[in-house]
Amino acid sequence: MSETLDHRSYAYRADLADIRLKGQVEAERYTQGAPGEVVVPVADIRPRPDPDCSIDTQALLGEALTVFDISGGWAWVQLAADGYVGYLREEAIREGQKPATHVVAVPRSFVYPGPDLRFPHLKTLSMGSRVRIVSTAETRGTPYALFEDGSAIIATHLRSATEIAAEDAVSVAARFLNTPYLWGGRTGLGIDCSGLVQMALAMIGKSAPRDSDQQAAGLGKVIDPESDELQRGDLVFWKGHVGFLEDPETLLHASGGTMFVTREPFQAAIDRIARLYGLPTVYRRP
């Protein structure tokens, strides 16, 4: 089997591979997979079907994916949005895909059994979750959007699935300030550095790879901090890390140093990170 293809982006194993890779990798058999979607608020994606290994990324409610194999309670899938390949629990998905009507547009929101914020909430959804709304209701002046089963979410926490956020990516990222850092996380409950970049760009209609090394290799264009004037929205990469410039003097990022999404003086961040991981490796403008 070829080892030149990134397992995060290409679905292939010794026994099974994506049929689109036939001729590029060797496998016992090939499959085109089946369409599916995520049915839980957050599904952890792992590099192998092992609950004790760390997560690579997460899939959110309503996200589309391709299912290549289901075995032993695990599904081997590829996410549609960024092409990430990995394993999640079988119960986190279902076959088929239905178009979403709305997207959660705030860092996190609650789902209630009915249109009343005084009801005990059923679950918590993250920004980027894709949902299907069938009707609306209002209780004591608060508007609600209703799901098929009658459960409800605050209507103002949603936007149409076809709408693009008017704010820029840095403003979206800033809404996650103080969100806990979580390795592999990409939700309003926990997020890592590249997850923050990917989510912020996605909410303004721009796609991005999932991991920081992938982003550093091809997201936007390379800029030279010596000759190009740094500006809001530029990305700064270190080995294994990335952050937004909120302005030329301020870095906004999900920090493993503070363990939450934070802003700090850019030069102070350079000095602090250099002691462990060296200086920035590349600057890019998405």
Report on this model:
By secondary structure, the chain is mostly beta strands. The protein has three domains: 16-95, SH3 type barrels; 102-160, SH3 type barrels (Roll), CATH 2.30.30.40; 169-285, endopeptidase domain like (from Nostoc punctiforme) (endopeptidase fold (from Nostoc punctiforme)), CATH 3.90.1720. 12% of the residues lie in helices and 37% in strands. The protein contains four helices and 25 strands. It has helices at 169-174, 193-202, 212-218, 266-277, and strands at 16-18, 29-31, 34-38, 42-45, 57-60, 64-71, 74-79, 85-89, 93-95, 102-104, 108-112, 123-126, 130-131, 135-139, 142-146, 152-154, 158-160, 186-187, 190-191, 221-223, 235-238, 241-247, 250-255, 260-265, 282-285. The protein has a six-stranded antiparallel sheet, with helices on both faces. Strands 8-7-6-3-9 form a five-stranded antiparallel sheet, with no helix packed on it. The longest helix has 12 residues, at 266-277. It is globular. The two termini are 34 Å apart. The relative contact order is 0.11.
Question: What is the distance, rounded to the nearest whole angstrom, between the alpha carbons of the first and last residues?
Answer: 34 Å
Low-confidence parts, pLDDT < 50 over ≥5 residues? Answer: none
Beta-strand segment tally = 25
Strand composition percent: 35-45%
Structural class of the helices, strands and pairings? mainly beta
Q: What is the annotated CATH architecture of the largest domain?
A: Alpha-Beta Complex
Please give the domain count. 3
